[in-house]
């Protein structure tokens, strides 16, 4: 299986500190990019790497980092929110739920 190079992305943790997460996207597999992003973020939440009140990177910023369309990121965040893992707070950002 082909794995893309990891992309290091900055996020703000629950204490307001800048931290790093790594996302790996592979456009050579059948799993859509939005689902790859959703799955990796949900695992980081499940294992406690992304704690409640962490602010995820803004949609546009993450899209630029990953060199994909902002709509793809927005779709990932929408599904994460539907699943109760994050909450969107408008201009303040998207945060991991309690």
Summarize the structure in words.
With 98 residues, the protein is an alpha+beta fold. It has three helices and five strands, in the order ββαβααββ. The strands form two sheets. The chain has a three-stranded antiparallel β-sheet. A two-stranded antiparallel sheet has the order 1-2. The longest helix has 14 residues, at 33-46. The chain is globular and about 35 Å long. The chain starts with 6 loop residues before the first strand and ends with a strand. The mean pLDDT is 94.
Summarize the structure in short.
This protein is 36% helix and 20% strand. The chain is built from three helices and five strands, in the order E-E-H-E-H-H-E-E.
Find the structural class using helix and strand composition. alpha+beta
Number of strand segments = 5
For the terminal residues, how far apart are their CA atoms? 35 Å
Task: Order the strands across the largest sheet as they lie in space.
Answer: 3-5-4
Task: Please give the oligomerization state of what you see.
Answer: single chain
- Assess the beta-strand content as a share of residues: 15-25%
- Low-confidence parts lasting 5 or more residues at pLDDT below 50? none
Q: Helix amount, in percent?
A: 25-40%
Q: What best-fitting shape do the alpha-carbon axes yield? A: globular
Average pLDDT: 94
Work out the radius of gyration: 13 Å
- Helix-strand string: EEHEHHEE
Largest sheet, strands/sense/barrel: 3 strands, antiparallel
Tally of DSSP helical segments: 3
């Amino acid at each position: 299986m082909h794995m893309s190079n990891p992309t290091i992305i900055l996020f703000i943790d629950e204490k307001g500190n800048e931290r790093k997460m790594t996302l790996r996207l592979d456009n050579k597999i059948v799993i859509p990019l939005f689902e790859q992003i959703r799955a990796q973020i949900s695992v980081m939440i499940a294992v406690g790497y992304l704690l409640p009140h962490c602010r995820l990177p803004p949609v546009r910023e993450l899209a630029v980092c990953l060199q994909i369309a902002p709509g793809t990121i927005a779709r990932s965040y929408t599904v994460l929110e539907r699943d109760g893992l994050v909450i969107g707070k408008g201009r303040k950002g998207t945060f991991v739920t309690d």
